[in-house]
Amino acid sequence: MQAFVWISLAYIIYTYLGYPCLLFIWGKLLPQKVNKQYTASVPPVSVVIAARNEETHIGARIENLLSQDYPSTMMEIIIVSDGSSDNTDTIINTFIQKSNTANLDSTHIKLIRAEIHKGKPSALNTGVSQASGEIIVFTDARQIFKPDAINQLVANFNDPRIGCVSGELVFFENSTSEIKSEMNFYWKLEKRIRKMEGAINSVAGATGAIYAIRKPLFVPLPEEILLDDVFIPMKVVFQGYRTIFDNDAVAYDTFAKTLAHEKKRKVRTLVGNYQLLRLMPELLAPFKNPIFFRYLSHKILRLFIPFFFIIFLFSSFLAGGLFYKLLFIASILTLLLPLTGERISAMPFLGKLSQLAGAFVSLNYFALLAFFYFIKPGKKNLW
What we know:
By secondary structure, the chain is of the alpha/beta class.
């Protein structure tokens, strides 16, 4: 039993702490810099958005893109309305009419309507097929870009080795989310890992709200795919280009308001990671995947932490001896500490411990749900 305790504990510690530390050392010893350059001559860019019933957000999204610092004549906005049944199309058409009556220097806006809901992958495939830009920027209808976001993304492509650039998603501090502290802790760690991976060579995925690729590198998405922001960047990597993370290219969003809202988003992501292994088995082939070690450490090991934590919980209880009993008590406290909520949040040390435990418990609860959802028969359509 003692062996199970140490194996499971080592697995958890490596995934959350050991791997980031290894990346830090690796980046200091063998960094690969990006030749990011801002030039007067910029390539044409197509912003592609898949939208379904987004009347609440689509107007602000278009206005935000029109206010980008990027030259308007070098940018087009392509919105694929995936069987929307609300006023999404009407709002988009209003912007198109304004663009048509404006001067010739205005940004071109194109609406592509799918009469039947086919899903985000189909919408993105359609949007890219109609895009004229050399660079494709992917984003969602909900988020807002910082004014120079597209400029920041595109400047990286002056380095011919760069095939995909992921931006940074920043969450508004005034969010009323009930789980803001827990998710903020996780997201800071995630962004740090992505930045270190990109500094070494390539990131194992991108930020779905803001990323860009060279159009010739786009590989059409399978219609059932859940994670376009991992499939597309990894296909770029398999073609011999780098996928990097640029924290100067910023998009803004808000945290999910409740655990239930975050659960749907996170379970979708985790199920998508399982699905990718079925659709792209080469991801787990060390001699085919150029970033196999990073992909394994970043994307795969996290999926199984809840199972290793369960092993740790029971093996520490059965191992005998005071030390192992203390480990068991510590694991129980990890599960119970988040339940204290705001009662200890004001205490400097215990408050931080509560946030840390809350992030750990929430994320692994989602991971456990994702596993059972994935093995459940039926279509995994969560978009």
